[in-house]
Amino acid sequence: MKKTPIVLLFLMLFFSASVFANKIYLDTYLIGANTTSLKYSINDAAALLKQSNVTISDKIDSATNWLLVFHLDAAYINDKTLYEANTKETQSFYIQSKIENRIHKIFISASSEKGLSNGLYYFLQSKLGFKFYHPKETVIPDLSDYRLDTFTETITPRFDKIGFHIHAMHPLEITEALLNENTPNGAEEIRTYIDWLCRNGQNYFEFNLLRSIKLKTWIPYIRPIVDYAHARGIICGADMSFHMIQQRAFQLYKNFPASFRKKDKQISDNITQLMQVNWDVWNVEFATTEFTHKNQDKLHQQQKFLYDNLSKYDVKLTSRKHVVKDENLISNAKSVKTKRTDMDSAYALFVHTVMFYGLQDSSTPVYRNKDFSHLRNLLTESKEYRDTWYFPESAYWITFDNSVPMFLTPYLEARRKDILYCDSLGIDGHLTFSSGWEWNYWLIDWSIARWCWNENIKTEPLQFLKEVIKDTSVLDFVAKANALQTKYIKGQQLIKVMDAQTITDEIGGKLNLEFHPRPEFSYEYIMNKATKEELDFIQRKYVDMLDAFVKVYNHLKSTSNILPEHKIEEEILLGLDITAMRAEHRKNTLSYLLVYRLNKINKTKNPLQQYLDAAKTIREKALELVRQQEQNYRYPVSSLAAEKKSKTVYNFGYLYPVSNLHFWEREELQAKNNRWKFFYQNIWDVLKIIGVKK
Q1: Which residue of 183, 326, 374, 375 sits 20 to 30 Å from the alpha carbon of 659, by its own alpha carbon?
Q2: Is the model's pLDDT at 288 over the cut of 80?
Q3: Taking the model in full, what pTM does it have?
């Protein structure tokens, strides 16, 4: 047999490998020279493609097998603001993939640069396998031997404006970067988030301004960041207030004795200072707190003054409708709104909902509501005469989900259904109130961002988890765990005892208001005053159901035989496990209260310490899961889960209560010592939160 020469063998291997190497040329000839926004996206895409083993070509040659062509149908209308220019039409794009002369040609056409960017990132994420699931992490596929399909699609967003509000009143991942110009690498962290918004087809970004910022040094810091967002086609909004006292909200004016100057003068001066940054939107809170009305005559005067003085800056003014019904607000006769004014149509409206409840849910036991029918009605009415956005939450930090912690998967279906419902109403915008990404809440944000695009939305909530987890056994387990949470935690309302108590649950008098889901009787009442019938009710509705949920979950876990092989699988499973452990912990602390009270009623001495011992054991095991999960945090644990100075009223990171399972241990100590006042084992600086002290 004749031997193949070594050189020839090498060449054969080389060309054999080269056959499967993809080389792409990015053709921008049809888009013109002044396309700054699109060039950012093209450069970003080129960097991503290089990481996926695709060669970027500076010209078409014999080795080029992918050709990506951009076509700009029409330039932005010059006299339109960025806010006005962003519509469903300008965000949409046409994309076609076909083979011509042995080259796979991908053609993207849109009427704006942002539309072309949306098309480019859609191609990367939906066709090539990149997954932009977290601002700090991306799934990078190996495309060295990838073969493209042929397709022709027109993709449109469901809303004119889609984006995220970072609730910087809370010490979240990028709160300090947004508010403190001395934050190490702060500007880069914000730009990373803006890039994530672009990669997922969003066009709006907003965050809270706090009065703790130092305008003189903060404005030069934030201005280039906002300029960067604009260069990427992102509308930028600033959330502030006329005179809200809660949680250091930025105030356009201060009352005496904090300031001796007239309110109009203070507002004018703040406009001059803040508009050194080219904001597109001011989202202004009108009331002093989210639970109070303002004198309607004075409010109208202030709204008109602000509107008139901001008109030269082309700023879009908005406000929000909180979830509290008007009749449940703390009001007087002059605060009750009786008629529509010219300012109602001048200001856009963001209609807010909270937690994992949806607009069409039959039961929404939050903020003294039976359901959200008043907000559904408002959406329908408001959209007829002003820009109207839906403003739901993807997490609720204080004592509800990620601060406990629990990974509450019913958020997914609530947000998916609400998006479809708002789309059917023709709502103008969708703004997600984001309160942290760890403990898997990145999945909620990412799913919302994707669902806001009209591309074959599926009928199940784990649609996008399937794009980052390929193990079918893990996915099957997560789907079944989600069904259990939906049935028990939301449907059977176990959330009423699984969330932690907040201040208004434990304070006395008129301020003892149900803002979070809570059981029919206070824990103090259960332990010290409940009747036998009431104890039976708590046993049946909560303790027995908690026990059932835990048993079914543990059986599911023991029979699924799953072992996480990747980080995302591990963090999802840890989040589900600790949610089940939270249910078991509450079953034991509640059982202690019931047995304690029954002993008093029956004058017996049935053993009860076993329940607190069991609760402690569960908490200590759960702490081991917390330590494992902390290894998965994308930001330093010292930033997210420790005490620290903050621009907010909270001198710790938002996952600090998780680091020691504060709420779990507090509940054990409350039961053990029969202590139920809000200040017992308290971590909140209540006077700062309500604005009494700085």
Answers
A1: 183
A2: no
A3: 0.93
